[in-house]
Amino acid sequence: MPLHSSLGDRVRPSAPGDYIDLMVQIRDGNTITFGTLVESVKVKAIKDDNGNSLLENTISGGTPAAMLFEVEDSLFDLLKKSEYVANVEVIPIPRNASYTKNEGATEVSSEQIKQKILENCVDINS
Question: Among residues 35, 58, 54, 36, which one has the least CA distance to residue 46?
């Protein structure tokens, strides 16, 4: 997932248990829907534009370009669909230390936002 501004500098998965929430912004004409889509996603790595891990190779001085994380298949499908829907932007939000200690389950936190994404998708496997 591409990083926005310098969020990659604020998330450090080298310390066990760093988590993010995935916020979504959906623009529909003059209406903007903004909220948390997925909560409690564990960060696996942050890479520069050459694919180097910035956490394993701190002397590279690279700029964060991608954040890698792991989610179950149904959440992966939803996030991939959101990439292809016009005017939908997924934004990773770092969690603070006390919030991360009680990470909870990785799950969809807004059925309304999920439905807005799915309204614009056709699943040919159903």
Answer: 54
pLDDT tens readout for residues 15-27: 445 788 899 998 9
Closest alpha carbon to 46 in 88, 18, 83, 73: 18
The answer to whether residue 113 scores a pLDDT higher than 90 is no
Q: Is the CB of residue 43 less than 8 Å from the CB of residue 19? A: yes
Helix%, strand%, coil% for the chain, nearest 5: 25, 35, 40
What are the backbone angles phi and psi of residue 110, rounded to the nearest 5°?
-135, 105
Cα torsion 110, 112, 118, 119 to 10°: value is: -170
Q: 59-92: per-residue pLDDT in tens?
A: 556 788 888 888 999 999 999 999 988 899 999 9
The dihedral through the CA atoms of 85, 115, 69, 24 has a sign that is: positive
Count of positions (residues) in the chain? 126
